[in-house]
Amino acid sequence: MKVILLAGGIGSRLSEETVSKPKPLVQVGNRPILWHIMKHYAAYGHDDFLVALGYKGEMIKRYFADYADLASDLTVNLGAGKVIRHKQEPDEAWKVGLIDTGQDTHTGGRIRRLAPYINGSFMATYGDGVSDVNIEKLVEFHKSHGKLATLTAVRPPARFGSLSFEGDAITDFTEKPQTGEGWINGGFFVLEPEVLDYIEGDSMDFSKEPLSNLAKDGQLMAYKHETFWQCMDTLRDKELLDSLWDGGNAPWRNWDNA
């Protein structure tokens, strides 16, 4: 099953980083967040990727074009113009399609533009969020209900502390509660090819009209994910993910036990 990674947005709320690179290449620890997402899918055996490129997409192409060389020891014969790769090799035996889907194309349009590369059920997610969602169970859930689309519903961490009162006195203060009040779209979709018929053009945001119309037609189901999910919208989000990774407490790091 192919996995689409939506990696074309500008990421304006993380402008401290994205002024010089596309958001999916912003690093968590010492690796781009895109790599973390791909490692998560690959741990469940899904390593055939389509990366929908847009803003600074050439940098993502260059990252993967150089990936094997940078992960290996090299001998460079300058006179012969040859590079010999030896000793180390990358652990990732991924197939990565890098497709330019337009600078200003919205998420729905990016998925639609990848139609020629889709030949059956496929998965899709955003290139800026990590989770410990069980991909195997997600796919099983999708297959069980027979509808066209499944999204992963999550309860995001609240961004601010929570206060409880008696009159003006604070009786309880909870810093950064881990569960928000409502369910939101966390990405990590499983989709049937017929979903493409719900996307009319480049200007369509997948999270708006397509998902709304799928819901109206009774074709959208939610896989409820109760544990870790975190997007990287802001510098504060990046710092949180860095701290989890650097502290050895990254919940999405499932590949060590794959």
Low-confidence stretches: none
The value of Rg in angstroms is: 20 Å
**Biggest beta sheet attributes:** 8 strands, mixed
The structural class is: alpha/beta
Roughly what fraction of the amino acids lie in strands? 25-35%
Instruction: Provide the domain count.
Output: 1
Amino- and carboxy-terminal Cα gap? 18 Å
Query: Mind telling me the CATH class?
Result: Alpha Beta
* Named CATH architecture: Alpha-Beta Complex
CATH superfamily: Spore Coat Polysaccharide Biosynthesis Protein SpsA, Chain A
Helix share, percent: 25-40%
Average pLDDT confidence is: 89
Q: What is the tally of beta strands?
A: 16
Helices, by number, come to 8
The 3D shape can be described as globular
Order of helices and strands: EHEEHEHHEEEHEEHEEEEEHEEH
CATH fold-level topology = Spore Coat Polysaccharide Biosynthesis Protein SpsA, Chain A
Quick synopsis:
The chain is 25% helix and 28% strand. It has 258 residues and is an alpha/beta fold.
Detailed description of the structure:
The chain is of the alpha/beta class and 258 residues long. It contains 8 helices and 16 strands. The chain has helices spanning 15-18, 33-42, 57-65, 67-70, 107-113, 135-145, 209-216, 235-246, and strands spanning 2-7, 27-28, 31-32, 48-53, 73-77, 82-86, 95-100, 122-126, 129-131, 149-154, 162-166, 169-174, 184-185, 189-191, 220-225, 229-231. Strands 1, 4, 7, 8, 10, 13, 14 and 15 form an 8-stranded mixed sheet that branches. The protein starts with a strand and ends in a 12-residue tail after the last helix.
